[in-house]
Amino acid sequence: MTTSELNTSGVDRQLVDMMDAVFADYRDTHPPTGPVRRDTELWSRLDQLGLVRLSGSEEAGGSGASWYDAAELMSAAVRHGVRAPLAEHDVLACWLLEAVGAPIDGAARTVCTLDASGTATAVPWASAAEKIVVIWRDKDIHLVADADCADLRITPGCNLIGEPRDTVSAEVSALTGVAATQELLTKLRLRSALVRSIQVCAALDRILELCVEHTCSRTQFGRPLSKFQAIQHLIADIAAEAALARAATETALAAAIGSDWSAPNLGFLVAVARSCAGHATSVAVRNGHQALGAIGTTIEHRLPEYTRAALAWRCEFGSVRHWDEEVTREALAAGAAGLWSLITD
């Protein structure tokens, strides 16, 4: 999503500028090297600025900002290529703790749902967290515990761009949890999915910008690459797909915020957003690397940062196929009489 579009929903321009300045300064002084880790110095600075718990209520120690502000923070981090578990900590883990009435301290968190064996795989940022909000099923109810990482077994792993995606195991009998309703868990699922859609859209926008910059400045046969019709078609397709993904994501986000994540068609709208973002990624990655050629695959160029990120994120919290099937199921269930209201309400 773009800054101008988010600002129409009330995001403060000065807040956006501050986010960009913080991430730009960090990236200038911390070029990516090696595995991705949570930088405690950056985390401390973001915490001092009130950005770590940006959307949390003031009563629970947050900044009381909106989801639009949180979405802009996620997008700003993506634009500058800064990796941090801001979404996992703020709008997922800490939100769930606040929703179930649990106390929240200053520890960095992520969240996961354990299976019947007490294991969760591909947990974002688990090995970089201090606490993990753990969800598990106990007979007919779900329980939530704010567990110290020292009390869990964490096996490190990573995704395509080196972000921690770890395996977490727990002895649930040793955990003390509070009950969480199915409604809360459904909201968590939709929040998680929409977080990745927001991040993918931000990556697609940067792919487009980099392609436009390169093709306008690089000359071949005496004229800029952007003057060649084949190149224009490649860039136009990226722009169209990115715009579609962004529009679908913004529609889902607006419906979520306007209904406190309880709109009857929200599941469908989130599925559409994830489906559009997933398929847009295929076009943007293919066309972007075709437009830039060999230079776009080098470590000196920033294009792979965004193409690989989009590919990694589109498969998390549900694959592209999963969300395609979800769109199909929702549409079939609505039937001919209910499809229009499913899309527009």
Automatic annotation (TrEMBL):
It comes from the Bacteria. Keywords: FAD, Flavoprotein, Oxidoreductase. Coiled coil: none annotated. Residues 196-319 form the Acyl-CoA dehydrogenase/oxidase C-terminal domain. It holds the Pfam family Acyl-CoA_dh_1. Signal peptide: none annotated. Its cofactor is FAD. One of its GO terms (molecular function) is acyl-CoA dehydrogenase activity. InterPro entries: AcylCo_DH-like_C, AcylCo_DH/oxidase_C, AcylCoA_DH/ox_N_sf, AcylCoA_DH/oxidase_NM_dom_sf. Belongs to the acyl-CoA dehydrogenase family. This is Acyl-CoA dehydrogenase. It comes from Mycolicibacter sinensis (strain JDM601) (Mycobacterium sinense). The lineage of its organism: Bacteria, Bacillati, Actinomycetota, Actinomycetes, Mycobacteriales.
